[in-house]
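Q: A reviewer asked whether we had any structural model of the full assembly, not just the individual parts. We don't, so I'm hoping you can provide one. Inputs are below.
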Amino acid sequence: MTWLTWRLQRTEFVLLGAMLAGLSGLLLWTQSDVAAIARVTECANPFAEPRLGCGVDPSPIYDLVFQGLPWFNFLPLIAAVLLALPLVTELEQGTYRLAWTQGRTRAAWAWNRLGLLTLAAVGFATVFTVAFRWWSGPLDRVYGRLGEDSYDFGGTLPLAHTLFAVALVLATGVVLRRTVPAVVLAGVAYVAIRIPFILWVRPRLRTPETIVDAPATAGGAPGDWQLAWRWRDAAGAELGPDGFFAVCGPTRALSPEAAEECARSHGLVQVLTYHPAAHYWPLQLTETAIFLAGAVALLGFAGWWLVRRVE
Amino acid sequence: MNDTHQSTPLETRDLGKRYGRGGRWALRGCTLSIPPGRVTALIGPNGAGKSTLLRLAAGLATPSHGSVAVFGADPRGSAAVVLPRIGFVAQDRPLYPRLSVAEMCEVGVRLNRGWDRAFARSRLARLGIDPGQKAGKLSGGQQAQVALVLALAKHPDLLLLDEPTASLDPHSRRAFLQVLMEASATDGTTVVLSSHSVPDLERVCDRLVILSRAQVLVSEEIEPFVASHRLLIGPRTAPSPVGQSGRDGTVVQISHTARQTVALVRTGGQGRHGGDIGPHDARWEAHPVGFEEVVLGYLAAAEPERAGEALSAERGADTRRERIAS
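A: Here is a predicted structure for the entire assembly that you could use as a starting point for your response.
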């Protein structure tokens, strides 16, 4: 059975492996740049743009990779499509009837197929996570791991996102039994889940820390994830985004000193909410648990549908 | 569950299948019993429910109503028991197109206990099929042949073939049916094969099931069944050929031309050697009929508007009928 699964998915497994190898190659190629940038950034201003005033001229490939980092968010989806496609094609073309009328039950077939896909997804995510961690390690030490250029590609999240994406493509695939609509629908659903999650759910997975009356120059420690600066009045009530202007007038009309003076005289203080670097693992593991739960539910649904509903 | 029940390869009771809630019934009220060791032809136009019946028997589909039993067991609930005993060849895409013929054999070996690799190898060699060839690159006829060999190498007790000859030219069809006959003769395999094309089936099959509009019209042994029919030809104005003078018989199908009336009649149970079949009214002539004409008569009676598309042999039967009539 495993032999058949491997044989039917071989091309896609190889493609996925090639993609991973290419990616790792790029990371390997540009790792020296990362290390150099981190080194000079560390001894200069940690909040300056890495390329400014550091005397480092990273290679164009590094620029390419660095600019491309947001696109790494699509890797779980690409891996999922490659992994799940052969099974959906089999349902679309009807060849599953051949497999289901041999000596093994379709439940055994479904376990084998879904199990191997899960293993492949775990393998892909693990290799990617290790490669990325090694690549971005020097920068992580300077900037922390909560930034958007690192957070989604480290820890346990690539694994959770990849398994979730695989389960999502499989679940839509077994129900629709047509490859193109299944991939389009699953892709849209994946993005429509991930983006709102990052924007609204992720910061709330753990209660953020607050610093009251933080000096305007403070930004928490390097590596903290700043969520918001808000004004609070003397009574402790939070002001809306326009609250400060309502009290002191447009900032542009005020010199920084005058603005500070106005704030002090009205008892206004600035409050910073942020996630400290120590929240990294609690945040990671909570999000991982949520996406893994989703993956398990979707995989279970796909298996149940395959065994009970496909005719 | 007694012995006779367990030895019946395929038995259905009031079996029905509906796709979707409130959807069309693909099969309805089907009660059948296929005896062991026989080759049964499942005949009917497209959409009559043939594929549905075979899929229900193979456990690929679940009944919406009634029950289906393969050697006394539910093919879906007891799949682990039933699957090793059946062979199934699907109508289209019976092979993985990306796999070579040799790899398809490997599938057989790995997914079945006791799969007969030597048998498959010798059959494929005899058919002149290159094991290195990709299944998707084979002609439709060769694909059907390979699919049959793969199913036979399982040495199933019940072989279910869904339109296996649909994509074959006459020569390949004959070769295919030849392989099938040999196998069923040597292994004593019970075969159920569906087809919407009648030629050749009479030679291969000894039982007949006619399906039309999701229902079973006929389920009988071919020889006595055919022998009990007559084609009656008389003047247009003559009274009905049966029901006169107390003779048993039922009109299966009746058609009129300007001057003549032609009726396919089933006589009352005398069978081939009943001799005295036919109308007493001397204006009617009785002619023996062949397998194809009987089948076509039933189908034309059941769905007159679809009779033309029902069977590819229609034309031949028509000309013969005209010949008899003139």
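A: Points you may want to mention in the reply: Chain A has a mean pLDDT of 88. Residues 209-277 of chain A form one domain.
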